[in-house]
């Protein structure tokens, strides 16, 4: 009986222990965090330090020393209780200047005066828009402090009052309300949820639809982003109303608006397939992918995250992205000096390669991309190499014979096998799945399995044999499958006994010691560079 006949017999009788699709599926992003701390600082809180507002009297002294303002703080606090609107507004302006200093604003000192209930009272009952504006500004900047300082504002009842301010006919009051909502919503999930409950998102969108103010558009987009962010996520049903407007915001010429809109989209697309479907149907994909071409560092992270979320959905969602031809740009970004960007790119490619043969082909057509992935697999940091192992394994296990042949070159195979030396069960499984597809391809297309021979030449078989002793059942079974199917040739007596017993193989694998030195299965005059065929 020839080796090939024995292989086919073993393959047909061997108990099936795994399915390539188990490890090949699309992966939602759970571990990659792009500049998380910097992003959180940017998203969550902003203080309004601009004092050049048309509500401020022109004779006010913008350069008044903070020490002098603080010296008179108690007097200002008492004055805001006055029935004289001019005196009240004057005092509020002074206090607003104190909480608007650029560095180390004395927020706690302001809180300790007991002023917050008085400010809340103004928001509740005041009709004078200038006074409303100043009180809202002070509360906004207090809420930009630490979480305890924000809590003093929310505990006093500010959340529904800020939402009510959105109904004002004065754009400056509207803008300040949006700013306050964004600051508070960015502090805690429960505040975000309260704003959504009170209808803040729909009111902000309505204001943005009818405004010509760039400041409102900027702060509104930032507020939308903060209302969409955080875990646990808000219910998608509360956020979907933002999609049509975000589709337009992604076509803005303002970099800040583009960045916040892209982050909002990244939060909305991080969910179930049906949520991703609504996002795709809203038309966000073309302008989103187009932003990659702008080469703006501020945009790359949120755009990559959003694209990655979309291609983690169905094959149809991946197709919607691929229609915009992002892969050449992703290839360029794989050379980024930022680890997080390279990792995000490889995560996106891993989900594309988990798709159809046509989708795999689309990234294989980019000249040099496989070589670049192998280079990353050889030289990059382990977390990024892991992502590449998914890219290559998905493409190999789901690709056509021609695609497997194009990917499974010597450098690729050896680099994948080197990952078997690292103690990571998930990666063991990913690599073993890829090797099984390669070996199966070799068995079906060559008289002598050139890939099996190469694995022996580079010492990979011994690594696989070692995994037969692994404590993880799935790793053990996959490794044992490979050894039994491709590297263990039973004697004629073993085959005769198999035929005589006519029973299924019972997974009693040979010991590692009996499975070495199997080079005699292959022609010794085979060219060493075996894959250029």
UniProtKB/TrEMBL annotation:
SUPFAM superfamilies linked: ARM repeat (SSF48371)
Domain of life per record: Eukaryota
Pfam name, any one: IBB
InterPro entries cross-referenced by the UniProt entry: ARM-like, ARM-type_fold, Arm_3, Armadillo, Importin-a_IBB, Importin-a_IBB_sf, Importin_alpha
Domain IBB per the UniProt entry, residue ranges: 1-56
Gene Ontology terms: biological process: protein import into nucleus
Gene Ontology cellular component list: cytoplasm
UniProt repeat feature ARM, residue ranges: 114-157, 157-185
One of the record's GO molecular function terms: nuclear import signal receptor activity
Keywords, alphabetical: Protein transport, Repeat, Transport
Keyword Methyltransferase: no
PANTHER family for this protein: IMPORTIN ALPHA
Similarity remark: Belongs to the importin alpha family.
Protein name stated in the entry: Importin subunit alpha
Species: Anaeramoeba ignava
């Amino acid at each position: 009986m020839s080796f090939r006949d024995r292989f086919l017999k073993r393959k047909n009788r061997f108990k099936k222990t795994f399915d390539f699709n188990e490890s090949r599926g699309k992966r939602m992003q759970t571990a990659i965090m792009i500049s998380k701390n910097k992003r959180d600082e940017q998203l969550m809180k902003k203080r309004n330090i601009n004092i050049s507002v048309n509500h401020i009297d022109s004779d006010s002294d913008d350069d008044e020393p903070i020490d002098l303002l603080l010296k008179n703080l108690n007097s200002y606090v008492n004055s805001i209780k006055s029935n004289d609107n001019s005196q009240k507004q004057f005092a509020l302006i002074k206090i607003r200047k104190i909480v608007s200093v650029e560095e180390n604003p004395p927020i706690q000192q302001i809180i300790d005066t007991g002023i917050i209930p008085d400010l809340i009272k103004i928001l509740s009952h005041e009709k004078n828009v200038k006074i409303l504006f100043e009180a809202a500004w002070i509360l906004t900047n207090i809420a930009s402090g630490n979480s305890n300082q924000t809590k003093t504002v929310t505990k006093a009842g500010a959340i529904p009052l800020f939402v009510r301010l959105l109904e004002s006919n004065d754009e400056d009051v509207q803008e300040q309300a949006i700013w306050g909502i964004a600051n508070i919503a960015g502090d805690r999930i429960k505040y975000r949820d309260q704003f959504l409950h009170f209808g803040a998102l729909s009111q902000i969108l309505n204001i943005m639809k009818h405004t010509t103010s760039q400041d409102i558009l900027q702060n509104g987009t930032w507020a939308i982003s903060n209302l969409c962010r955080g875990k646990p996520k808000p219910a998608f049903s509360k956020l979907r109303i933002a999609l049509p407007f975000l589709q337009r915001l992604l076509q803005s010429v303002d970099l800040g608006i583009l960045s916040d809109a892209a982050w909002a989209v990244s939060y909305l697309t991080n969910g179930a397939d049906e949520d991703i479907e609504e996002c795709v149907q809203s038309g966000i994909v073309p302008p989103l992918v187009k932003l990659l071409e702008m080469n703006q560092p501020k945009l790359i992270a949120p755009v990559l995250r959003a694209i990655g979320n979309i291609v983690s959905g169905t094959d149809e969602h991946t197709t919607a992205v691929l229609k915009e031809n992002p892969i050449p740009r992703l290839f360029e970004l794989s050379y980024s000096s930022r680890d997080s960007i390279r990792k995000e790119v490889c995560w996106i490619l891993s989900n594309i390669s988990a798709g159809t043969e046509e989708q795999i082909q689309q990234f294989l057509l980019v000249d040099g991309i496989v070589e670049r992935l192998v280079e990353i697999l050889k030289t990059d940091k382990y977390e990024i190499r892991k992502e590449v192992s998914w890219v290559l394994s998905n493409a190999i296990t789901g690709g056509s014979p021609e695609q497997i042949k194009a990917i499974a070159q010597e450098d690729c195979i050896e680099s994948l096998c080197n990952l078997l030396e690292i103690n990571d069960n998930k990666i063991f499984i990913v690599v073993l799945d890829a090797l099984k597809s390669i070996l199966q391809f070799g068995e079906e297309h060559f008289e002598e399995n050139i890939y099996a021979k190469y694995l022996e030449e580079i010492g990979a078989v011994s690594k696989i044999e070692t995994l037969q002793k692994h404590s993880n059942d799935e790793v053990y079974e996959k490794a044992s499958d490979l050894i039994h199917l491709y590297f263990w040739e039973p004697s004629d007596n073993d085959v005769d006994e198999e035929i005589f017993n006519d029973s299924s193989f019972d997974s009693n694998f040979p010991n590692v010691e009996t499975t070495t030195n199997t080079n005699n299965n292959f022609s010794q005059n085979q060219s060493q560079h075996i894959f250029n065929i």
